[in-house]
Design goal:
Layout lengths: L1 E10 L2 E10 L10 E7 L4 E4 L1 H9 L3 E2 L1 H9 L3 H5 L1
Length: 82
Amino acid sequence: MVKLRLKRYGKKREVSYRIVAIESSARRDGRPLEELGFYNPRTDETHLNVPAIVKRLQDGAQPTETVRSILRKANVLEQVRA
C-alpha cells in the first residue's frame, strides 16, 4: 500500500520534512516513489505539488494523520472529493 507521509531531513533541532509517496513497509527515510511537497514546522511553511497529490490520493494512497492535517489546511482534500 502506498502512503503519503513525512520524510525527515535537516540538522538537529532545525528539522524540516518532505511530503512523500512511499510504500508503507519502507523505512521513514527510505527511497520514496515521489516527492510531493515540503513542510517546515518551525515556520509553518508548506509547498505542495497539488496536482500530483490529488492524483496519488485518487489512485488510493493513504495519508498519515499529520499529512492529512497539512492537506486539510491547504484545502487539498476538498479537490479530491469534488
